[in-house]
Design goal:
It contains eight helices and 19 strands. With 360 residues, the protein is α/β, with parallel strands linked by helices. The strands form five sheets. An eight-stranded mixed β-sheet has the order 1-5-4-6-7-8-9-10. A four-stranded antiparallel β-sheet has the order 11-12-13-14. Strands 17-18-19 form a three-stranded mixed β-sheet. Strand 15 and strand 16 form a beta hairpin. Helix 1 packs across helix 3 and helix 4 packs across helix 5. The radius of gyration is 21 Å and the shape is globular. The relative contact order is 0.10.
């Protein structure tokens, strides 16, 4: 762990490559560099390069600070890689608002300093789950102004744990193209089911029902996303799922996220702590079929009971056709579950098994 005041431009000698990377960015920023290069996280495909101007980053940091009431001297915890926008914007907020920056090595189980009060942090869902499941790690956040979680949908279990906390936790929505979050939803204290855009953010839906965003952080250009959404007149919205994740099964379009939330609710009610996701795989009869992937070294014994539970909440056509247990899911370098690569590796293993059998 390392604590720095990045705006002062006086830095200790780093003891890890990550600390060196953070300090190098701070020095580049303080030197007045105007353009910074990033890559998207790659959680929905190949990462792509994006160039962002410092004015866009300053505006994003100002929006966050005004929303949360940040003040000079507040502490921000950094435990995300700074090569991605979610991590680097923690640093930029510290630079813009003159915050103290606590640098911790990125990990899905970050080493949270329990003797320092933390006012701000940005996390991915596995990190937040780790913190909420360990009472000893909650103390630093009792006077937090904002614990922000983003980068992926949160599970029913995480939301249930967050609801019990007495400090503000927000699910955020954004992407590299919008210079981190542009909307938020409280999941502790005053809970809301809808995301709310930050001031100055405009939203609409395109012909396919995907959310489109325009704001100062996008240089007033409209950004089209692949996120299917429900948008209300007051600009509050819900993300229904990704257009490119839709499963076309026997002519019916299935949204994995709508199935996953009921699977997670079943897990929570039955004390099952396993990672899972729903995805489509090729099928001769259906074209694609919905499959429930569960991270488990052995087959599960609750398949029949789960199906009966899902039938109480979903139509029979929405029920996954099978359950596939894999010993380990794949995650990208930003700590997000990479369902695309996990499924691709599974299908590749099937292909190899088929080829091996064909030889005999």
């Amino acid at each position: 762990m390392l604590v720095i005041s990045p705006k002062s431009n006086v830095f200790p000698v780093p003891s890890t490559p990550f600390e060196a990377e953070v300090i190098e960015f701070c020095q580049s920023w303080n030197a007045g560099n105007e353009w910074f290069n990033f890559h998207t996280s790659g959680s929905t495909g190949q990462p792509k390069a994006i160039r962002i101007h410092r004015d866009q980053m300053i505006h994003s940091a100002q929006l966050t600070g005004n929303w949360l009431g940040l003040e000079a001297g507040d502490r921000a915890l950094l435990c995300l890689p700074v090569k991605f926008i979610g991590g680097v914007m923690v640093v930029v907020r510290a630079l813009v608002w003159d915050l103290q920056l606590i640098i911790v090595e990125p990990s899905n189980q970050p080493d949270i300093p329990i003797d320092l009060s933390i006012q701000l942090t940005s996390l991915v869902p596995p990190q937040l789950q780790h913190i909420l499941q360990n009472d000893s790690l909650l103390k630093p956040f009792h006077f937090a102004k904002g614990v922000l979680v983003g980068g992926a949908a949160i599970s029913v279990e995480i939301e249930s744990l967050a609801m019990k906390q007495d400090f503000p936790i927000f699910l955020t929505y954004g992407m590299t193209e919008t210079v981190s979050h542009i909307a938020y939803r409280p999941i502790s204290l005053k809970i809301d089911d809808y995301l709310r855009p930050l001031p100055g953010v405009e939203l609409n839906l395109n012909e396919e029902g995907c959310i489109c965003i325009r704001a100062e952080v996008t240089n007033r250009a409209w950004i089209e996303t692949n996120d299917l959404a429900e948008l209300k007149e007051d600009q509050r919205f819900k993300i229904l799922g990704r257009k490119d994740f839709v499963i076309n099964s026997g002519g019916m379009k299935l949204l994995p996220s709508q199935i996953e939330k009921h699977v997670q609710a079943y897990f929570l009610e039955n004390g099952i702590s396993k990672l899972s996701f729903v995805a489509g795989i090729p099928d001769i009869f259906y074209g694609q079929k919905a499959v429930l992937f569960i991270e488990s070294p052995e087959e599960v014994s609750f398949e029949g009971h789960l199906k009966q539970y899902l039938l109480q909440h979903l139509s029979s056509k929405q029920i996954p056709k099978s359950i596939i247990c894999l010993p380990k899911f794949l995650f990208n370098s930003n700590g997000k579950l990479d369902s695309l690569k996990t499924v691709a590796l599974y299908l590749q293993s099937l292909s190899k098994e088929s080829s091996a059998h064909d030889k005999f």
